[in-house]
Amino acid sequence: MKTQALLYYIGAFIFGGLGIMTFLQLEKTNYKVEAGTFIIAASLVYYGMVTLYFKSSKNTFLLANLILAVLALCGIFFNDVLFGSH
Predict the structure, then answer these.
(1) Please, which of 33, 37, 47, 60 could form a disulfide with 56 given CB 3.0 to 4.6 Å?
(2) pTM above threshold 0.85
(3) Is 46 exposed, middle or buried (0-12, 13-18, 19+ CB in 10 A)?
(4) CA nearest 40: which of 5, 11, 69?
């Protein structure tokens, strides 16, 4: 089995399990929609990164990881500005 196919199967197992757990445990519909949207977005990023790793150069993959890391750090430090405070 190729490594790329194995990573796709692992991702399907992880995100499928997250989807099943989300819809079994959450009661309100708007919580399910929010969690489902996050799971779909995370799975698209995961599959995009796996595809980018195997189809492009390593520099492109590292640049995409760097951009995601910077966005994550900005989300942490500018959380109040982006999403408002409690």
Answers:
(1) 60
(2) no
(3) middle
(4) 11
